[in-house]
Design brief:
The protein is mostly helical. Helix content is about 80%, strand content about 0%.
C-alpha cells in the first residue's frame, strides 16, 4: 500500500490547489449570474467551452508524452526543453494566425460583434498551453507544493481582478473617474460588461507565466528532432483522444447555439446549463486532482521496483477513486437544497442536470483510470478510438435529444447524452483493458458502494426532506453521510485519526 499512500498524499496536495482554487473560482458564478442576464452569461460559458478545446489542441498530448519519455530517456532535461520549444513555437503560430483571421473566426463562432473577446481568450489559451509544460515538469519533479502555490496565485489574481473590474471600477467611475479612466474608458467602461472577465483572466495568465520563469531559465535548451518525432508519434493519438474528449465535455455549451435560430433563447439555455453544471464541479475537481497524481504514478509503478505488484496498486487506486467519487456525489445531492443558492433563482430551472452530470463525470473519471492499459502498452491509438467513439455517440444523441426537448429545457438532452456516452466509453474501456492488460478490479466491492450510495440518496430524497424544517433535513442527511463513511472505514479497515497502524 506504500504506492497508494504516496498517491494519496500527492492527490491531497494537488486536490487542495484544485478543489479550493476551483471552489474560489466557483464563487465567481453568483457574481456573474447576478450581474449579467442568462444571455450574457451564456456567452461566457460558450466561449470558455471553445477555450478548453483549443487548449487541448495546442498541447497535442505533450504533457503525457513528456511523462512517458522523461521516465525512460537518459536525459529528462532534453525531453523537457524539446517539449517546451515545440509547444512554444506552435503557441506563437496560433496567436499570429488568430490575429490575422480574427474577423472570420469570430463570425464562424456566431460572435461577429465580439471579436475582442475571441482574441483575448485565444491569447490566454496559447499562454496556458505553453505554461502546462513547466507545470508538468513540476509534477515530474514531485514539487507538488510549488505547483499548488502557483495554481493558488493564478486563481487569486483572477478573482481579485474580477472583483476589481466588475465591482470596484463602476464605483470609482462614478465617484473618482480620473483614477481609472486611463484604462477603463478606452475599453468602454462598465458597458464592456463580460469583457472584463476575459481581461482579468488575461492578466492572471500573464502573471503566472512570469512566475514560472525559474522553470524556464537557467538551463541549456536542447532540441532533439528525432526525440520530438517519437514523442509526437506517441502523443498524436492522445491529441485526437483529448480533442474528442474535451469536445464531449463541453458539447452542451458549444452545440446549443447551432441548433436554434433564436440566438437569445439559445444563449440563455447555455447560461442556465453552464451555471448549473458548476454545481457538479466538485466531481470534476476531484477527477482532475486525481489525474495530476495518477499519470506520474502509473508510469513510475510500471518502470520502478514495484513493477510486479503494480496491478494491485492500480486495483486499489480504482477502488478508492470510486469510493471517494461516490462520497462526493452523495454529499452534493444531499446538500443540493443549500448548494443551489450559489446561482440566481432564475437559473434554478436547470437543477435537474446536476445528478445526471455528477454521474456522467464519475463515469468519465473511471474511464480515465481505466486508460492505463493503453498508455502502459503503448496502444494509445485505442484511447483515440474510444474518445472519438464517445464523441460520435454524444454528438448524435445531442442532435436527437436537444431539438426534441426544445426551448427552454433543451439542455437536459445535453446532460443525458453525456451520461449515456461516458457510460458506454467506460464499459468499452474496461472490456478492452481486460483483454490487453488484465487488472483484477474489485468490482464486487465497488458495486456494493454504488448500491449503498443509491439507497442513501433515495432515503435522503424521499424520507428525509422535512419541508419547512431545513435544520432537521440537513441534520438527518449529515447522519447519512457519516453512515456512508463509517461503512467505508469498517469494510476497508481504515485507521481512525489518532490510531496507530
Amino acid at each position: 500500500m506504500a504506492g497508494i499512500e504516496a498517491l494519496a498524499k500527492e492527490t491531497a496536495i494537488y486536490g487542495l490547489s484544485s478543489i479550493i482554487g476551483r471552489f474560489l473560482n466557483w464563487c465567481l458564478v453568483p457574481l456573474y449570474v447576478y450581474l449579467f442576464p442568462t444571455y450574457e452569461y451564456g456567452i461566457v460559458s460558450y466561449l470558455y467551452s471553445f477555450t478548453a478545446v483549443a487548449l487541448v489542441i495546442l498541447n497535442y498530448g505533450m504533457e503525457t508524452g513528456f511523462f512517458r519519455f522523461a521516465n525512460k530517456h537518459e536525459s529528462p532535461g532534453t525531453v523537457y526543453t524539446t517539449a517546451l520549444l515545440s509547444v512554444g513555437t506552435t503557441s506563437l503560430a496560433f496567436i499570429a494566425l488568430l490575429t490575422a483571421f480574427i474577423g472570420p473566426v469570430s463570425t464562424a463562432m456566431k460572435l461577429p460583434g465580439h471579436a475582442s473577446y475571441v482574441w483575448m481568450l485565444g491569447f490566454i489559451v496559447a499562454l496556458d498551453a505553453f505554461s502546462n509544460i513547466p507545470f508538468a515538469y513540476l509534477r515530474y519533479k514531485k514539487r507538488a507544493v510549488r505547483f499548488a502555490v502557483l495554481k493558488f496565485v493564478n486563481i487569486g489574481l483572477n478573482i481579485a481582478f474580477n472583483l476589481f473590474f466588475l465591482l470596484l471600477c463602476p464605483i470609482l467611475a462614478r465617484h473618482c473617474p480620473a483614477a481609472i479612466d486611463w484604462f477603463y474608458a478606452p475599453l468602454g467602461g462598465e458597458a464592456f460588461g463580460i469583457g472584463w472577465i476575459f481581461v482579468a483572466n488575461l492578466i492572471s495568465t500573464v502573471s503566472i507565466l512570469i512566475l514560472l520563469l525559474p522553470e524556464l531559465t537557467g538551463r541549456r535548451y536542447r532540441f532533439d528532432g528525432p526525440l520530438l518525432r517519437k514523442m509526437l508519434r506517441y502523443s498524436w493519438p492522445l491529441l485526437i483522444l483529448g480533442v474528442a474528449g474535451i469536445m464531449s465535455q463541453n458539447m452542451g455549451q458549444m452545440i446549443i447555439p447551432y441548433l436554434f435560430s433564436d440566438q437569445e433563447a439559445a444563449r440563455s439555455m447555455v447560461g442556465i446549463y453552464g451555471a448549473n453544471i458548476k454545481i457538479a464541479i466538485l466531481m470534476v475537481m476531484f477527477t482532475q486532482a486525481f489525474r495530476y497524481a495518477f499519470e506520474p504514478f502509473i508510469f513510475a509503478q510500471a518502470g520502478g521496483k514495484n513493477g510486479p505488484n503494480s496491478r494491485q496498486a492500480y486495483c486499489d487506486a480504482m477502488k478508492f477513486f470510486v469510493i471517494l467519487g461516490l462520497f462526493i456525489f452523495l454529499a452534493v445531492m444531499l446538500y443540493l437544497p443549500l448548494l443551489k443558492y450559489f446561482v440566481s433563482r432564475s437559473y434554478w430551472g436547470g437543477l435537474d442536470v446536476v445528478p445526471i452530470m455528477m454521474a456522467a463525470e464519475l463515469c468519465f473519471g473511471v474511464a480515465f483510470n481505466l486508460s492505463l492499459w493503453y498508455k502502459l502498452t503503448d496502444r494509445t491509438q485505442w484511447g483515440m478510438y474510444l474518445s472519438v467513439g464517445c464523441f460520435i455517440v454524444m454528438l448524435a444523441l445531442n442532435l436527437i435529444f436537444v431539438p426534441a426537448i426544445g426551448i427552454p429545457r433543451g439542455y437536459m438532452g445535453c446532460a443525458w447524452a453525456a451520461l449515456i456516452s461516458y457510460f458506454l466509453m467506460m464499459m468499452a474501456s474496461y472490456f478492452l483493458g481486460q483483454y490487453y492488460y488484465p487488472v483484477d478490479y474489485d468490482l464486487k466491492t465497488m458495486g456494493f458502494y454504488l448500491a449503498l450510495t443509491a439507497i442513501l440518496w433515495g432515503v435522503g430524497e424521499k424520507l428525509l426532506a422535512f419541508p419547512g424544517h431545513a435544520w432537521l433535513m440537513y441534520l438527518s442527511r449529515t447522519v447519512l453521510l457519516v453512515l456512508f463513511l463509517a461503512v467505508i472505514v469498517k469494510r476497508e479497515k481504515l485507521p481512525l485519526p489518532g490510531h496507530k497502524k
